[in-house]
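FAQ: What does the model actually see?

It sees only this:
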Amino acid sequence: MANHEGDTVKRQRNAKLPLHVKLGFGIGDLGGNLFFTAMGFYSLFYLTDVVGLSSALAGAAILLGKFWDAVTDPTMGYISDRTHSRWGRRRPYFLFGALPLLLAMWYFFSAPDFRASQTLGFIWVTVVLCLLNTAYTVVNIPYGSLTPELTKDFKERTSLNGFRFSFAVVGTILGAAIVLPIVNLAGEPHRGFSIVGLVFGVLMAATILTTFFTVRETAPAQETRPKGKFFETFLIVFKNRTYMRLAAVYTMNLTGITFVQTMLVYYFKYIYQDEAMTTMAMLLLLGVAMVCVPLSVLVAKRLGKKRTYQLALLILAVSCLAMFFFAHTLGITFTLAVMVFAGVGIGFGYVPPFAMLPDVVEVDAAQTKNRKEGAYYGMWTFFSKIGVALAAALSGAFLSLASFVPNVVEQTGSALFTIRLLIGPIPAVIFVSGILLMQRYPLDEGAYNALIASERETQL
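And it is asked to produce this:
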């Protein structure tokens, strides 16, 4: 039996994945990024300008919801690592988590007006965000944990994640581009956002169910199945320095992007007084990103995953500084040009971290004889969601301190400067910090193949 499992893993390591598997796996992240984009671009704006919460309370509610979300991620990873079912370890959660995710998304974007009761609104939003984020975690952590199980090949993982993030960009574009048109067509913001929640919930459920029906798992060899208790498992994860470095950079990446995407709609609405142009800016940003995702796969094969990732972060940092120093005086045309440039950075930054993470996980499995993909992916999203939560909460807090008032056309100078600051220097510093931290990441293709070969020889 052990020899049969070993032969299966060896074939899996060397085989190219069929196109239908890459497509079926990739489409799952269309819904995932639809969620990420809707929450990133619009959740704070929706809560302040539609639901009527103060910016400070809205940011605090998002922070608490994300903290809960971050805590549940490692737990879900631990659970899915140890799940045994007729559908495998990960796929059952796609099947049974799709409907709760749909309903929770619809419910959040159907919030009542809380202008008359800020305390009640804060409690309602916090509880519903916890429910929504839990539903997303149940689906998303097992989905991400599938990556290292589908292929062991260093370059094939880059190709697999190229498919994944091509769909991810489609989801991101939909999430960014169709919200305001749907709201405008509905004629009333509350009704419009409720329709958005329903449409997005249906798409999220449909895409993850597509992955369930098109992808099959390979069971881990008996001797590499996860061992250890909950805290013991995650303590080992924290001791993996290569993983921690990569996770820290990815967290910085998402934190910086969250500042930018949260502020973009505020920038157009209050600095340019042209909220409708937000959709055009997002389409340019994400359309260029979609084109650049497959291009980044080719670049990564030439430059390596690490250098490609650093290049992406550099482009994003330059874009943020251009927004701060020039966009408010040079106008919308200049800003749209910056969106095109930043789209290259977004596109180049999608694939590398998710192509590097399975390498780290595979090396750990080879060295420890203990497969714990769910633990690694759970902590990965734990760190990144803490960063996202802090970015959203700080955005709300800074706006409140700057005397920002929702839906007032003429904002104070301090409020306008704060919007520029949150879309400019603050994320730029975060991106540059990520570049510097990534410089000492050690696991290139040569190092990966050498470590795997060494462990294989040891087993023989």
